[in-house]
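Interim report to the steering committee. The following record documents the input for Na+/H+ antiporter subunit E (129 residues).
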Amino acid sequence: MIGHLNLILRLVIWFLLTANLSVANIIIGIAVALLLPGRPKTPEALKDWLRVLGEVIVAIPQAYREAFEIIFRPHSHEDVTMERVKAGRTPGLIFLDIFLITFTPKTIVLKYHEDGWYEVHWVRRRKKA
């Protein structure tokens, strides 16, 4: 069986995708969340989930700030970097990490490597020499 936090994450994604909170849609969402394949239940620290959700809340104003920066001061330099996945991440937390990186306009995860790395594309301003 999947963990409670993973079930909640699946339901949140379902409701965001469907934008429908009717009783029938809630029942379908619960069924889909339970039927989706997943890894066996893994111990997850509630503090890890709360920290990541706090980072998501902080990322919203950051995304707006970066969008205005790109509009008013165009960024023409691109980089691709490899970033290490934090130790002990469950699939749900890895998903939220990828969401956080991709949510802001200046970064996007190109690929998740199973050996514990994210390939991240950055848009940056060139530093004047």
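The beta strands are 77-84, 107-113, 117-124. The committee is asked to note this result when reviewing the revised timeline.
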